[in-house]
């Protein structure tokens, strides 16, 4: 299916900074809309249902899986997370650009449904810095931080499957890189759609 809007998928190991980067991008790019995921994990301190996540019980999540409501879903750090079709399809069909913050398994599933999706992987500058970001964030207990760090090596081994990799060392630099990727994709996709429309017109294809 060929939608007029763009789809951007940002993945990273926990603590690399993807939520912070996406938040900064959304503040300067009014064309971009965030897809809010469903999760079975409990809300953290300031998190709000419907804004950060749709916090969903296990039976509700099961029902959504059975009802084919997700475009992708995965087990991540011992919980389930998923992107509903509702969160993206209508919006990109209407020409909005949508950005997803999800794990690598979900990102790879997205490419099955949306071949034009742009996949961006965020890396931390070092293991020490990744640990220190998770600790400084102070949102997760030690055992959860250890599990997230353990899972990070498997996640980072998938980075080569993505269209772009950004190292989030200096925050402002990483925001700039992300912004540049979004801008380049908009130009590329608009040119592609113009070329296709002109070809169809010349061949008299409705
Ligand atoms: N470039 C950076 N330099 C220093 N600290 C950063 C940088 N980017 C993000 N951080 C900090 O690192 C912590 C983790 O960032 P963030 O919550 O955005 O990570 P995440 O990848 O979205 O993690 P998760 O997948 O667990 O939600 C936050 O406290 C954030 O303020
Ligand atoms: N496959 C999906 N992964 C998702 C989705 N939403 C978030 N995530 C991933 O979960 C981890 C942990 O998030 P946290 O909020 O508990 O720290 C995060 O790093 C994402 O990679 C989703 O819809 N699908």
TrEMBL record:
It comes from the Bacteria. It catalyses: GMP + ATP = GDP + ADP. Residues 5-183 form the Guanylate kinase-like domain. Gene3D superfamilies: Guanylate Kinase phosphate binding domain, P-loop containing nucleotide triphosphate hydrolases. GO terms for molecular function: ATP binding; GMP kinase activity. Transmembrane segments: none annotated. Keywords: ATP-binding, Cytoplasm, Kinase, Nucleotide-binding, Transferase. PROSITE patterns: GUANYLATE_KINASE_1 (PS00856), GUANYLATE_KINASE_2 (PS50052). InterPro entries: GK/Ca_channel_bsu (IPR008145), Guanylate_kin-like_dom (IPR008144), Guanylate_kinase (IPR017665), Guanylate_kinase_CS (IPR020590), P-loop_NTPase (IPR027417). It is found in: Cytoplasm. Its EC number is 2.7.4.8. GO terms for cellular component: cytosol. Coiled coil: none annotated. ATP binds at residues 12-19. Belongs to the guanylate kinase family. HAMAP family: Guanylate_kinase (MF_00328). This is Guanylate kinase. The lineage of its organism: Bacteria, Pseudomonadati, Pseudomonadota, Betaproteobacteria, Burkholderiales.
């Amino acid at each position: 299916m060929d939608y007029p809007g763009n789809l951007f998928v940002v993945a990273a190991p926990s603590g690399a900074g993807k939520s912070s980067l996406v938040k900064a991008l959304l503040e300067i790019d009014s064309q971009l809309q965030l897809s809010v995921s469903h999760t079975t994990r409990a809300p953290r301190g300031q998190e709000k249902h419907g804004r950060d996540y749709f916090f969903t019980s296990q039976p509700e999540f099961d029902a959504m899986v059975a009802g084919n409501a997700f475009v992708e879903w995965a087990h991540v750090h011992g919980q389930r997370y998923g992107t509903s079709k509702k969160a993206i399809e209508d919006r990109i069909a209407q020409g909005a650009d949508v950005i997803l913050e999800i794990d690598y398994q979900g990102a790879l599933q997205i490419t099955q449904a949306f071949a034009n999706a742009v996949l961006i992987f965020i890396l931390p500058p070092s293991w020490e810095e990744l640990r220190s970001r998770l600790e400084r964030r102070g949102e997760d207990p030690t055992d959860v931080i250890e599990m997230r760090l353990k899972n990070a090596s498997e996640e980072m081994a998938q980075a080569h499957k993505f269209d772009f990799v950004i190292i989030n060392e200096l925050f402002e630099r990483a925001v700039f890189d992300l912004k540049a990727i979004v801008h380049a994709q908009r130009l590329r996709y608009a040119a592609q759609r113009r070329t296709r429309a002109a070809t169809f017109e010349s061949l008299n294809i409705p």
